[in-house]
Amino acid sequence: MHKIDALLKSNPRIKRASEFAREVHQGQRRKNGDPYYYHPLAVAQTLAEWELDEATVIAGFLHGLYENSTATSESIRTEFGDEVIGLLSGVRDIRKIVYQGAYKDIETFRKFILQVGKDVRAMLIQLASRLDNLKLLYIQDPETQKRIALETLEVHAPLAYRLGMYRLGGELEDLAFPYMYPKEYKWILKNLHDLYESRERYVEKLKVLVEASLKAHGLKPVEMHSRAKRYASLYKKLLKYDMKLDDIYDLVALRVIVNTVEECYQALEIINKYWPPFPEGFDDYIEHPKPNGYQSLHANVYGPNKKITEVQIRTKEMHYEAEIGIAARFAYDRLKETPGYAQGGGAPVNKSDSWIKRLLIWRANPKQGLKVDIFSTTILVISPKQELIEIPAGSSALDYAYKIHSSLGGHAREAVINGVHKPITTKLAFGDVVEIIEDEAVSPAADWLEHVASPNAKAQIKAALTKQAHEPAKLPVPEASQPVGRRLISLYHTQQTGILPAVLELIQKSGAQIEKTTVHTTGILSKSPTITIVTTAMHNEVALAKDLACIAGITKATIKPYKG
Questions:
Q1: Among candidate residues 271, 236, 275, the one with its CA nearest the CA of residue 256
Q2: For the whole prediction, is pTM greater than 0.85?
Q3: In the prediction, which pLDDT does 12 show?
Q4: Is 414 left (phi over 0), alpha (psi -120 to 50) or beta?
Q5: Same-domain pairing of 14 and 163
Q6: pLDDT of residue 356 exceeding 70
Q7: Domain containing 28 — which CATH number?
Q8: Is the per-residue pLDDT at 515 higher than 80?
Q9: Do 123 and 60 fall within a single domain?
Q10: pLDDT score at 115
Q11: Together in a domain, 428 and 557
Q12: How confident is the model over 58-110, as pLDDT tens digits?
């Protein structure tokens, strides 16, 4: 029986979510002809297998409602509560981001995806959904297949590994690999099928010998099995070793599961008595876990007939956590706080050994769910060219400007944040779209230091201030060099109201005096200006014209001498 079947019988809220999804998707079909309901059911089943909490399983059933039904947020909130709505909103926000392989820093993009979802459970729902959809990728057109495969290999699978979910990461890669690299996939099938079978038979024989040796020394393993390297993972390793198969020792590895950490090292010692270790073929991930918390002993040994074979030794808790990663934390919380939620449950997790304590990118505070804490010290903002820029948390637009270029920071006059003109000292938030307006007349001021958080910006400002202090004082600009005459500002815009105050404010900031403002009655398609303003001359007419053109609704702004 699947775990979801047990939950549907024992948990009324999950059962209602299943019924709700079935009702709203009634009559909808997937491209292969199956009822659409099969997809949310598969997602909920995967989440249940990962031992995730009630709200996440419910959200798994409902995650496609925003795009594929007439169900409203309020109807879902009324039935299932704010927590479920929060998870669904996170999934929706993640899906708004389209990966096109154009990001210079793919790791930063992965961080961005995680942070957008706010609660990591939203990302787990998206990963479960992607896993099921990949199984139907064969019915998509070639262009769609390649796009989804690329996104899976470069974003989703690495994120699964980041979350410690090795089994999921491998499954995602294997499902996407044939569509992204069809020739390479066929090559592996053709050239390695017999070798895989041969190595599997060899490791099965080794398993019998190792098990007997361990038992002879009083150590009874919990479980032993062979682990064949996945095709996608094998291909990446072959590239690393110039396609030399002889250098791949873990094509099929022997996995030994024991009860305690002490037994891990005891088992290694026993194995090495009979099968000598291969030089430089040992990694102790128990003493030195991987960044995502993965723990195991990996040892290459000379097996029978002196074949080099990898042996992986770990406790059952380590194995459980390596399989479902960050979801193991939810399993622990569920088993501790809500007994009976899933009859039969899953493997217990020892919280004192849990990798969650060591995984620095997550905050292990149950009251805050699993909110992403990647950006406890940094945030990501977006440039006008859609580039992701990472800056310290608490940064202002000045920090951003100095991050882009020292010259841009030194001459930063104003920031346009999410389309709104703001002071250059405005604090930035995650996901802000930021543009800097520079002015050659602007130079760093001492009070800027109070508004920057990055060491780079502080150093640049201090260097500029020191340079200014040692420069000879500038003589006053002669009156004759001040701009003279009058200017005619012509604005062309659509029939959008309420823009005049913003226009007048910008003109006044430029130092110009407004003499006359005329609003003309013209059609939307008219080539004549809809607003003309006569002013005194101002410095930096080009910058003012650009700023005016940035105001919502204005399509063009010109400034010319006026002799009227």
A1: 271
A2: no
A3: 94
A4: beta
A5: yes
A6: no
A7: 1.10.3210.10
A8: yes
A9: yes
A10: 60
A11: no
A12: 999 999 886 655 567 788 888 899 999 988 988 887 776 655 554 555 665 66
> What is the residue range of 276's domain?
183-322
Instruction: Output the DSSP codes for 357-406.
Output: GT-TTB---GGGTTBB-TTSSEEEEE-TTS-EEEEETT-BHHHHHHHH-H
Pull the structure tokens for residue 154. 């470069």
Task: Sheet with 531-536: list strands edge to edge.
Answer: 514-519, 531-536, 486-493, 554-562
Dist CA 78 CA 70 (whole Å): 15
* Tens of pLDDT, residues 420-436: 899 999 999 877 889 99
User: Could you read off the pLDDT of 520-550 as tens digits, one per residue?
Assistant: 765 544 566 778 888 888 878 888 888 888 7
What integer is the mean pLDDT of 105-127?
70
Q: With residue 12 as reference, give the H or E element that holds it.
A: helix 12-24
Please, where are the H alpha helices in 25-156?
38-49, 54-62, 65-68, 73-80, 82-96, 106-116, 120-134, 142-151
Q: Do 162 and 222 belong to one domain?
A: no
- State whether 447 and 504 are in the same domain: no
Q: What pLDDT shows up at residue 503? A: 83
Q: Are residues 167 and 194 in the same domain?
A: no
| Cα 410 from Cα 183, distance rounded (Å) | 52
Q: Is 68 helix (H, G, I), strand (E, B) or coil?
A: helix
Distances (CA, A) of 390 to 107, 361, 387, 410: 11, 16, 10, 19
Is pLDDT larger for residue 344 or for residue 20?
20
Q: Confidence band (pLDDT; 50, 70, 90) for 260?
A: very high
**d(C-alpha 343, C-alpha 6), whole Å:** 7
- Supply 170's token pair: 């491998």
Q: Which of 178, 211, 236 is the C-terminal boundary of a domain?
A: 178
Asked if 425 and 457 count as a contact pair (C-beta separation under 8 A), the reply is no
Find the farthest-apart pair of alpha carbons in the chain and give their distance in angstroms, rounded: 106
d(CA 264, CA 284): 11
∠ CA 108-112-116, nearest 5°, is 175
Q: What angle separates helix 82-96 from helix 106-116, to the nearest 10 degrees? A: 150
Going by pLDDT thresholds of 50, 70 and 90, the confidence category of residue 458 is very high
Provide the number of structural domains found in the chain.
Answer: 4
428 phi/psi in degrees, rounded to 5? -100, 150
Are residues 74 and 208 both part of a single domain? no
Query: 538, 484 in Cβ contact below 8 A?
Result: no
Contact 381, 431 (CB under 8 A): yes
* AA letter at 371: K
- Start-to-end CA distance of the chain, whole Å, equals 88
274: domain CATH number is: 3.30.460.10
- What percent helix, strand, coil does the chain show, rounded to 5? 50, 15, 30
Residue 521 is encoded by which pair of tokens?
Answer: 């009655």
pLDDT in tens, 441-452: 899 999 999 999
Provide the 3-class DSSP secondary structure of residue 546.
Answer: helix
Residue 220: which pLDDT band, with cuts at 50, 70 and 90? very high
- Surface-to-core class of residue 190, CB atoms within 10 Å of its CB (0-12 exposed, 13-18 middle, 19+ buried): exposed
In the numeric block, the tokens 């074949």 are attached to 307
